[in-house]
Inverse folding.
């Protein structure tokens, strides 16, 4: 070894989105400290939004280079290919809307901390999705999670929020520790933390039946399942979704899901693809359990946030069913369904946020009674979101589920498709109940006076997301083609390495 | 000495940590048990690093230490906030929310 240190090659341009988020997070924190409270109230969310949009634009501008073979940043620690860009964009867009939804939330008004933490969390998601090394995978996972623990506990006025934060911290950390132990065993089995080297070690033969390798892979999958809230590692989900401020819940439901499922396909359909026979049964079991537990858990929930939490467990089940396929069709289905799921959840949570502003009852199902008469546009958006989540035509949710089922059948797992269909049928019971309550039940006492000042931005988000849900449902060919292109290009760039 | 011994110790520490998280009631003790789980992984990483003769595992372990420190900081912060609000710091009594 020579005395001079060989510096790793760092592609600063490709690192742009992550650098912007770091700078923006620090700047946002700084804006929270200066000026009058009126200035802070405008400057802090504005700086957070500018940062997110800037990172999004920069990320998308890397498309041509990424699709031409992938960009490797910092000597193989991070890698940007079309899949990274699409999943990263879902996370960034989820964060943008989460900031918009929290504009009037108490927890976001205190200073720059709320927005700064959210930016750091998104940065963690980008690192996670782009990771090409076990070390960056773990680092991204923690950078995503630790700010989220604080964000969940950030509604200091609500007793439940702090409790949700602590619960999420404990359960999330158990997940992280499990993931880390799995990664340690994977390193032990293959002798490297680099994805490409791991892939080569698996292909060279001896490791594949190694108990170290299989154990490590199983533990890593369990660790990620905690974050994706797949059953049986979902117990924290309803509590945290209910206790956290609605903006943070939206962020968790859209961005965190995309990041967790993203790393799942990157890891499993990437370096661990040669071991597909070892991991696909594990994922299949997780998928079926999530579909069953999520759908049954959502039945009979009184709180809409809790119901959406259980339903998100079921939705992760559908996504995992597509992950089992592992081939091009499966990844395409995951990417498409993740995007669609983000849009429809956004519509649902925007309505919940607007209905429950200044009115705790508004999170409960009773609070939605008579919404159709009081605020038809809001109720209309919610109805579209519910129909889409249930997977009925002509919404995007229908096309999404169809793609998943198509992929699963094509991959030769027809019984999984059966589970998806049965799960969707059960889910009709609780999704349609919300619609029925909104349109056919009379408003409860106090509902008329409840929302003192209306928030036009929340109604606008709900309407836009609902319109998008229908638009994708009616004209699905363009987004489906894009998802296919992304998958194809990503797989190509990975096989050429 | 064979790698299996180091791994055995690491598995035992990890199991003690996991069992502690599941059975202990005090939030502070739960945080300690989480540390045990993370450090069990560190031990495994360093043992593997010796076995393979490269430094990947050692670097990983150092990064894990940094992350563990952050996690504990946030955990303690939340416990202090809960204590100040006069809520019980006993995890079983935090039952306003039910899974």
């Amino acid at each position: 070894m020579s005395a001079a240190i060989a510096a790793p090659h760092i592609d600063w341009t490709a690192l742009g989105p992550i650098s912007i988020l770091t700078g923006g997070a620090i700047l946002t924190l700084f804006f929270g400290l200066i000026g009058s409270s009126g200035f802070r109230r405008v400057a802090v969310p504005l700086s957070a939004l500018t940062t997110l949009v800037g990172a999004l634009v920069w990320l998308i501008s890397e498309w041509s280079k990424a699709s031409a073979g992938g960009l490797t940043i910092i000597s193989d620690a991070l890698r940007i290919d079309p899949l990274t860009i699409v999943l990263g964009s879902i996370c960034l867009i989820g964060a943008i809307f989460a900031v918009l939804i929290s504009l009037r939330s108490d927890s976001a008004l205190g200073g720059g901390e709320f927005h700064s933490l959210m930016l750091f969390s998104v940065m963690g998601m980008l690192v996670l999705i782009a990771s090409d090394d076990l070390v960056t995978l773990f680092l991204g996972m923690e950078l995503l999670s630790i700010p989220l623990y604080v964000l969940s506990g950030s509604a200091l006025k609500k007793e439940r929020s702090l409790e949700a934060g602590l619960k999420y911290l404990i359960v999330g950390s158990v997940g992280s520790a499990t993931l880390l132990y799995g990664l340690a065993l994977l390193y032990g089995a293959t002798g490297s933390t680099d994805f490409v080297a791991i892939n080569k070690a698996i292909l060279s033969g001896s490791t594949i039946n190694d108990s170290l390798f299989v154990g490590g892979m199983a533990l890593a999958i369990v660790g990620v399942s905690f974050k994706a809230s797949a059953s049986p590692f979902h117990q924290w989900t309803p509590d945290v979704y209910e206790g956290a401020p609605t903006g943070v819940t939206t962020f968790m439901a859209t961005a965190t899901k995309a990041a967790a499922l993203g790393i799942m396909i990157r890891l499993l359909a990437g370096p661990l693809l040669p071991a597909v026979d070892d991991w696909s049964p594990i994922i299949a079991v997780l998928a079926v359990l999530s579909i069953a537990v999520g759908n049954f858990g959502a039945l009979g929930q009184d709180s809409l946030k809790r119901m959406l939490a259980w339903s998100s467990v079921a939705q992760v089940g559908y996504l995992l069913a597509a992950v089992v396929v592992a081939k091009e069709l499966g990844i395409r289905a995951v990417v498409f369904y993740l995007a669609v799921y983000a849009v429809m959840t956004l519509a649902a949570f925007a309505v919940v946020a607007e209905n429950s502003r200044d009115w705790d009852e508004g999170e409960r199902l009773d609070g939605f009674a008579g919404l159709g008469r009081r605020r038809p546009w809001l109720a209309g958006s919610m109805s579209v979101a519910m129909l889409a989540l249930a997977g009925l035509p002509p919404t995007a949710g229908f096309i999404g589920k169809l793609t998943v089922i198509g992929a699963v059948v094509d991959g030769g797992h027809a019984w999984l498709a059966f589970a998806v269909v049965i799960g969707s049928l059960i889910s009709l019971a609780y999704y349609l109940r919300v619609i029925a309550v909104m349109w056919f039940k009379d408003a409860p006492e106090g509902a008329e006076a409840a929302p003192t000042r209306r928030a036009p931005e929340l109604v606008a988000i709900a309407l836009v997301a609902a319109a998008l849900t229908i638009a994708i449902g009616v004209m699905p060919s363009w987004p489906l083609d894009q998802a296919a292109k992304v998958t194809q290009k990503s797989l190509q760039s990975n096989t050429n390495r | 000495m064979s790698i299996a011994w180091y791994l055995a110790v690491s598995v035992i520490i990890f199991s003690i940590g996991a069992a502690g998280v599941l059975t202990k009631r005090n939030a502070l003790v739960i945080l300690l048990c989480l540390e045990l789980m993370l450090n069990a992984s560190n031990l495994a990483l360093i043992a593997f690093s010796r076995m393979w003769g490269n430094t990947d595992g050692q670097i990983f372990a150092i990064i894990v230490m940094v992350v563990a420190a952050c996690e504990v900081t946030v955990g303690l912060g939340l416990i202090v906030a809960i204590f100040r609000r006069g809520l019980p710091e006993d995890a079983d009594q935090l039952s306003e929310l039910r899974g």
